[in-house]
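Translate sequence into structure tokens.
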Amino acid sequence: MAVNVFHTAVSSDNISRHDMLTWINSTLQLNYTKIEQMSSGAAYCQFMDLLFPGFVPMKRVKFSTRLEHEYLGNFKLLQTAFKKVGVDKPIPLDRLVKGRFQDNFEFVQWFKRFFDANYDGKEYDALAARGGQAGAPAAAAPAARRAAPAARKPAVAAASRPVARAAPAASSSARVVVGVAKSAANTSQMDEIREQLAGLQLTLDSVKKERDFYFGKVHDIEVICHEPDCRNLDVTSRILEILYATEAGLVPSEEEEEQEEY
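Result follows.
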């Protein structure tokens, strides 16, 4: 049976997007370039095959697909394996298959911790286990066809001009290269900023959930302390003293003061 784990965005063992991709690719002999590619569900199926051999029918896992219904098929296999080995974690299928970074990064962070808790260090030939299937969906063909004419344009333009005027064309090409490089750098910076914002949002949501959870616990204790059977006990006074204590510089609200008087 599997070892279940609890994970939040504020866990100290969270790792970066780049380190996560390195771990995924090195463990499963994949060539993923972004976390969003985990939305196919194929990598999770193979991780489960590594951890619990025989619980995932690897011949039915689609690694090279770009179709959402086949993504769902992969996650259904994962769900079945989870149930068989006793994993409690629900899989947010509808969100993961949409390919959004935040949803997939949150789930893969949990899965990394689950993997570490269950991995026994055994050797695993990932490529052979998936029957030699490609490590990631192939690049879209239309994009490649559009790029080809653009690559031929400089050659045609250069052939139609006198040789003496080749220098200005080279200078213009250099400026284009520099502009493309700057644009790529800006895009990379924006991706990093988006990743940081997504991580901060995950952290904020997790902190809010934990705050509400523990506030509810404290409120329940307070209600019990004010019940007739408990109100006059010595231990109740001590508990209320702790609940209503404030730190230096913090002023209790009017509602808290009324509760103390009561």
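Note: Residues 138-151, 155-160 have pLDDT under 50 and may be disordered.
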